[in-house]
Fold:
Amino acid sequence: MKNFSIWKDGSFSINSCNLDSDIECDVLIIGGGLTGISTLYHMKDSKLNCILVEQNKIGMGVSANSTGKLTYLQDSMYNKIWKKYDKITASKYLESQRDAINLVKNIIKDNDLECDLTKSKSYVYTDSDKEIDSLVELKDFLIDNNIDVKDDALDLVENKYVISVDDTYLFNPVKFIYELVFKCNLDNYIYEGVSIVKIDRDEEYYLCYTNLDRVIKCRYVVIASHYPYFNLPFLFPIKGSLEKSYLCSGHKDIENISLISYNKPFVSIRNYRDYIIYLSNSCINSSHGNDKERFDELLGSAKYLKFTPSYSWSNIDIMTNDSLPYIGLIKENMFISTGYNTWGMTNGIFGGYIVSELLLGRSNKYSDLFDPKREISGNVLESVKNSYYSVEGIVNGFFKKNDSIEYKNINGDSVCIYRDSEGEHIVYRKCPHMGCYLMFNEVEKTWDCPCHGSRFDIDGKCISGPANKDISYKSDN
Ligand SMILES: Cc1cc2nc3c(=O)[nH]c(=O)nc-3n(C[C@H](O)[C@H](O)[C@H](O)COP(=O)(O)OP(=O)(O)OC[C@H]3O[C@@H](n4cnc5c(N)ncnc54)[C@H](O)[C@@H]3O)c2cc1C
Structure:
């Protein structure tokens, strides 16, 4: 079994630029996932001089661990939005997702990208009698919005009621990113292995300090780093929670299909060529406990689909307090695009486009809807809940120790030691982001933060933010 995402199986590299001196630019984009690459793409022909920094390799973060569905049929998202606001707001979100799909199709067509884009039917189903009325309500909402939605049937999973639409798509997100970079020569503007560790304001400029002791001076900053490493000005830890999901994939010949369960327990299935990708067992990141047990449950529950998994991996996304993304200005000349509620193929690529429009001084019809500074009703309650999750993460990280790890104190430093055939792997036990205790993910061999979702490889290299520093133990420190 390969314990990484099916999209990462292959060799991916670009001719990234070298940051060998301090530099200046108009716009600095932080993060090379779908959001950052889309922003760079949309800015490339503008008068503003843009660069993108990525702390690892581009396209290997959350985007590479997704299921790669481009769909507006998104489980109970619309119901959540109209409950929080109203149906007009939910309709506007629906319109944005359809616009986003068209945008992605046009980018692929205009640049002749080979990223396995295929049209597919999308299904939403429920296996619970209690949810049927609510799913019917979703169907009626879609009909009111002129969507050609049908009652349908599904053999693949047990269900009580199913609806489907025809005009949605599947693609390979990693191929999309790399093809776009190659075909548009975006690598001339990309610096890999460069992490932003601090941002200061100097009159009308931002001074962005990097892990390489170089400074990037710019007028505008775009935070496309998924979960931002800083807390102020946006107070991110109370603006959203984190959902962790477990996925596996193996050979199985099925039709072109994209299906999703309407509510919890959450299931998502799609095909990719002659593979099936199966997602299940999602949970709040701070309360997942033991990853090995959750992977075992995933593989157990996959049995009814009759395939032998050859890949398994996990992924974490940000759920916002009102189920709408945060896209726009967070402070003077600083933009953010994140919080996609597990729908970042559409929202991430569209977010990059919206931010580029705002950078160029153009208005966008969705900028109010996605405004990160919008008033969210019930926000106080949600914020308290999110703070509770952080505390739960601290407690679980401290108490839920892993049997295969030796926990030790060396010269006052709390460290974790994992031993395998290659020898000892020693890392600091606390996450450099906010000091939460890390948990060992025995399946993927990563150290994961139960509070804010940072991830580190077996030797402590940071592979996912908000942390922006490694945790490899250095004995001479
Ligand atoms: C299990 C799962 C399945 C999903 N499936 C789907 C799907 O089918 N369809 C869909 O629409 N959405 C899906 N999503 C959601 C989607 O994957 C994400 O919302 C989206 O990929 C986020 O993109 P991003 O560019 O914001 O983040 P990322 O892809 O994580 O990119 C952020 C980048 O920023 C870099 N970075 C971080 N900090 C710094 C720093 N300080 N300096 C420099 N670089 C930094 C990181 O290394 C990373 O490469 C899924 C999510 C999950 C959890």
